[in-house]
Amino acid sequence: MAVQCAATEVAPQDRFDYFWNLRGEWVEEPNVRRGGESGVQRVMGSDGQLLYAKRQTGHIYRSWLHPFGRPTVLRERDALIGLRLLDVRVPEIVFCGAQRDPVHKWRALLVTKSLDGFEEIEHWYAGGGRERHGEAVHDRVLKELADNLARMHKGRWQHSCLYIKHVFVRVTGEGESARVEVALIDLEKCRQRLTAHRAAAHDLKQLRRHSSFSETDWKKLVYFYETASGSAIKGL
User: Fold this and answer.
1) How many C-beta atoms lie closer than 10 Å to residue 56's C-beta?
2) What is the spatial order of strands in the sheet that 36-44 belongs to?
């Protein structure tokens, strides 16, 4: 049994083998959980493009739709596709595939393009990005993050693991002409909720707990979020 996809077409078997056999530096060492192993490597594509390959064996989740288990990369693939349709910036899929290996365990892959020029927002702060670009640009960073989150939640998608380390930023240019972009990563636990409010309440409270925003910056972020979403979230 095999489930495969690329960004725009069904991928043949040889693409799974090609990406499965690619090796590179471990970005996230394989960890044992969910009945299997999962890890992420930084690899180089045949065209010189830097890629990230999430490689899994027997790493599954269960739901009422999939009571016998389904590789978590397939859930992440669904989220990546869904969020891109909502104009939420997330990594671009190069290849996704899952198959049963000879001992009846799932082998699964999710290969995405590197977010070139982006860095973790905490690294951007630590590197003096805020001071270098000024408060006006920093406000735009907060607004861009809020806008992406609002679009995600309007589609009823809940990130479910919204830690500050999963927020990436890229600022190019200077002053009023600076271009500000924000991206979200690590969507393995992402799922759709019954309402946008439930998705928003969970994610924003989680981000508040797992970030170091000052009270002033957090209030700005919430203001931008509520303006973009058109609704207030209590308890923030």
Assistant:
1) 25
2) 2-6, 93-100, 106-113, 50-57, 36-44, 25-33
Residue 236 forms part of a structural domain: no
What is the C-alpha to C-alpha distance for residues 131 and 133, in angstroms, rounded to an integer? 6
Please state the domain count of the chain.
2
State the pLDDT at residue 67.
Answer: 65
What is the C-alpha to C-alpha distance for residues 11 and 80, in angstroms, rounded to an integer? 17
Q: Which of 8, 152, 150, 80 is nearest to 72 (CA)?
A: 80
β-strand 50-57 against 106-113: which pairing, if any?
antiparallel
Spatial distance between the Cα atoms of 94 and 6, rounded to a whole number of angstroms: 6
Fill in the amino acid letter for 113.
K
Token pair for 102: 């000879």
Q: Is there a single domain that holds both residue 19 and residue 95?
A: yes
**Does the pLDDT value for residue 58 go beyond 50?**
yes
Q: State which residues form the domain around 50.
A: 2-113
pTM (2 decimals)? 0.89
